[in-house]
Amino acid sequence: MFVLEMRGTANAAAVAAKNKLSSQFYRKGITIALFSGLMYGFYSAFLTLGMSKGVWGDWYGVNAAGLSAFVVTYLLGALGSAVNDTCSAVWAMGYAGFRGKLGDFFRCLKTTPGHVMILCALIGGPISSTAYVVGLQMAGSIVIPITALCPAIGAILGRLLFKQELNKRMMLGIAICVAASFMIGSTSIGGDAPPGMFLGICIAFIAALGWGFEGCVAGYGTSMIDSEIGITIRQAVSGLSNLIILLPVFGLMAGGLNLSTSLAIQAFTSGPAMFWFAISGLCAFVSYMSWYRGNSMCGAALGMAANGTYSFWGPFCCWIVLGVIFGMDGWSIPPIAWAAAVLMVFGILVIAMNPMDLFKKKEAK
């Protein structure tokens, strides 16, 4: 009898210890996923800062270095995205090499999940990332909460393409996100809105659509290969596809391949700008790494919601880095946009999970 009591006590202690470890693991996952949203905010800020330094300052200057409006708006946006993603790919490859996974990287490129990640990179890189950069340059950090609509769009596309669940709670979250986007869009309608803001917000919707589709497809790829390898594939393919596909296409539209080649060479050899691009590429890589790791620890639904806080951290980091530290004009955010960003975060959380579950988990622990 005494032995049975001892065994029961030992089992209870083991269960309590396991629950404590699970609770710590879960909370750490949430913290890492939240950190991914913060790093995405810094990525946005340092990317924009890099596109104001060195040769970029001449291109975006008063005379625009003799470049056409099309080149300044679209080709330079694609180039900025290409430089950042290339720097991010270098960080990812270096990390994979440090972890001894470069061989796995090249082997995965030949597999079906690897092909899925390549497709995701082609959608999220040349299309969404470029639209994001163009939107940032045209309308400022106000476009960041707009791009955070991607979880809502992903939920809708998941229902249409893969017959995934879209219940009343998720539809409520989508409605909240849409309402928040209309609040943000209202700031571009007034007479004091800067020129190009409305178009920049519209272009940001393209980024949200592409990332929403990428999120649907990437779930399959990352469920079958190492997330670190998946991220490396995504960043490497995104950088290369921007350089060898999108830039030449925009170059031809602007007058010839020589123009895009010349601009790319000048961008990669501009030291003052590349310093900040290296930092933005590192922040982008760490953000993706933290997002995937956080998802694996606290669940994809809550991880997606935590990462979606970049709709707040993006404007905040741009305001701090660009507006406060570097004294650049145009990075202040209207109060309605701040409120909409916070509302967007809540909407994303409602899409991802029942917010009441957070309190239930806490009580259970």
Short description:
With 365 residues, the protein is mainly α.
Tag the structure with descriptive keywords.
365 residues, globular, single chain, mainly alpha
Fold and architecture overview:
The protein is mainly alpha-helical. The chain has one domain. It is built from 16 helices and no strands. The chain has helices at about 1-50, 55-60, 70-100, 100-110, 110-140, 145, 150-160, 170-185, 195-220, 225-255, 255-270, 270-300, 300-305, 310-325, 335-350, 355-365. The longest helix has about 50 residues, at about 1-50.
Helix content percent band = over 70%
SSE order, one letter for each helix or strand: HHHHHHHHHHHHHHHH
CA-to-CA gap between the ends?
30 Å
What percentage of the residues does DSSP assign to strands (E)?
under 5%
The parts where pLDDT drops under 50 for at least 5 residues are: none
> Can you tell me the overall shape?
globular
Give me the secondary-structure category: mainly alpha
Number of domains: 1
- Tell me about the largest β-sheet: none
Radius of gyration: 22 Å
Total helical elements: 16
Based on DSSP secondary structure assignment, what is the total number of beta strands? 0
Mean pLDDT: 79
List the helices and strands and how they pair.
Blueprint: H1 2-50, H2 55-59, H3 69-98, H4 102-108, H5 112-139, H6 144-147, H7 150-162, H8 168-185, H9 197-222, H10 227-254, H11 257-268, H12 271-298, H13 300-307, H14 310-325, H15 335-352, H16 356-364
Helix pairs in contact: 1-12, 1-13, 1-14, 3-5, 3-10, 3-11, 3-12, 4-10, 5-9, 5-10, 7-9, 8-15, 10-11, 10-12, 12-13, 13-15, 14-15
